[in-house]
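re the bet — no i am not wrong, look at it urself. input seq straight from the record:
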Amino acid sequence: MSTKGVVESITKSKSGKSWRVKIGPEFYGANFDSKIDSALGKLIDFEWEDGKFGRWLQSWGPDTSPQPVTATVHTVTKQSSGDRWWLNFVSNAVAHSIAAGHVKTIQELRVWAVGARDAIEKADGQDLPY
């Protein structure tokens, strides 16, 4: 059977001849040469069979199915007074340019701040393609 799950724990079996692998609420046996011990804490896609010693891992690999992506959308809105509504955007843009090492002097700081303000004001209210 094929299924997916997170490898929660890996211990040696009582006989010491194989792995005892907990994936979700179930335990599975696995050969030492399966390298399942490298998957501890990871989501895997695996095949198993019910055999003489219970559930036994036949093969496994990292889960490669697309994971859901969540995005956070930030919007810039003008305040009713219109007073420097762009200030947070400019502050963040300049802070990141300083952190990246692009701004080293007061003159460069001014150029980046004015440029960021001009860019956001020109983009305000326009449907610009990405």
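see?? The chain is about 25% helix and 30% strand. told u. also The chain has two domains: 2-62, 87-123. so pay up
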